[in-house]
Predict the 3D structure of the following.
Amino acid sequence: MSNIVIIGTQWGDEGKGKIVDMLAPGVDAVVRFQGGHNAGHTVTVGGKSYKLKLIPSGILHKGKLCLVGNGVVLDPVEFCAEADALRSEGLDLGPERLKISRKCHLLLSYHKVLDQAREAWKGDDKIGTTGRGIGPCYEDKAGRAGIRACDLEDFDLLSRKVKMVLAEKNALLTGLYGKKAVDPEETVRELKPLAVRLLPHLADVSEELSRVEAAGGSIMFEGAQGVHLDIDHGTYPFVTSSNTVAGNAAAGGGIAPSRLHRVIGIAKAYTTRVGAGAFPTELTDEVGEYIQEKGAEFGTVTGRRRRCGRLDAVILRESVRLCGVNDFVLTKLDVLSGLPEVEICTAYEYRGRRIQYPPQAEGGLGEARPVYERLPGWREDLSGVRTFSDLPGAARNYIRRLEELTGVPVSMVSVGASREQTLVR
Ligand code: GDP
Ligand code: IMO
Ligand code: MG
């Protein structure tokens, strides 16, 4: 059986959740492998919208095994709240189908406090993070000071670790950021009732994956954020703190890279970005506003307006190169209906040269000027279209051009939030 990696190929919010939910019936397990509750994956089923942050988007399918891999940073408060919300919708979230890696790093209250304090301290230079503590939690992981899910099984160890780590954090919080110190004992106390709820879900996720494979099953790896928010390959420093590229499905899920067979890149028919950082094809005119409103481009996690712009084949080409994207799923094509022209950025002008891939210098992308190709738009409402051949000629042409510019076929097109509004080629 073949294992699939789903990744966002832009700056996040490409519609990964919808596609993971769509494809879940064809696999035996769905695994999140990086990020935390900075992710917001909206899945719409039967007119109802579910906002998933930490729990894999396969959860709406009865009995589907859903796993939170070691690469995820897990906030126990958020996890329990999300699970409660889903349970109140009648979903089964028993520990036999929803498992968390013991190796997951726990995102605790002080990570959130630090994230927000640092952003405030940076003022105009802030990253525009989701304020969820993601960066500080990954810092502790890399700094070998993290608290892991398995530590919930040993509160003596956990207490010692929290005390040690907070000695450092509190010096920073009170000394530099002028904030109140965080009490280690209270932090540990708050964790106790959460531990009771989390413990039954703890598992060896890597072993779970090999069990699925041994039984002839297949696995889907659900990425969060997007390639251009990757800590190494994104628009540093305006990135998230994990590797979002497809290769991290192996490290963050606990599976060998040779077991990843297909990479599906989710691309929105235009580009959006939340938070600060360069965005060459950003539109600040009425076309940008049209897309923002028609596409309801508001962040799921923070409610911020998403910045909107033209489709950028340069960043998509880079995502193809970095992730070995086998095929694209093009989402939100319906949003572009009604525009007289649709433009695609095919290359950048950068320091007197024409380039095909994003520049690497810090701030380089901010200097890149998009080179556009204009294509005719279409008026037709696409939300009721169900087959590729029923798309207007101009929409098919737009897709074909994207395929030519990236060298990757578009295997599915999404024309609305619900499952049915998906055209499989
Ligand atoms: P994700 O983070 O990549 O999962 O994407 P989000 O869920 O944050 O953002 C995508 C939004 O667009 C969600 O509200 C989806 O319900 C919605 N959506 C997904 N596909 C389509 C589509 O083809 N057309 C329209 N109009 N909305 C879509
Ligand atoms: P999904 O999975 C869009 C952005 C933030 C900020 C930067 C760093 O729904 O596509 P962080 O809180 O991660 O330290 O913030 O990354 N960001 C996202 N943008 N979609 C996401 O997730 C995002 N997760 C983080 O806005 O610019
Ligand atoms: Mg999102």
Remarks:
- The chain has a mean pLDDT of 97.
- The CA atoms of residues 61 and 222 lie 15 Å apart.
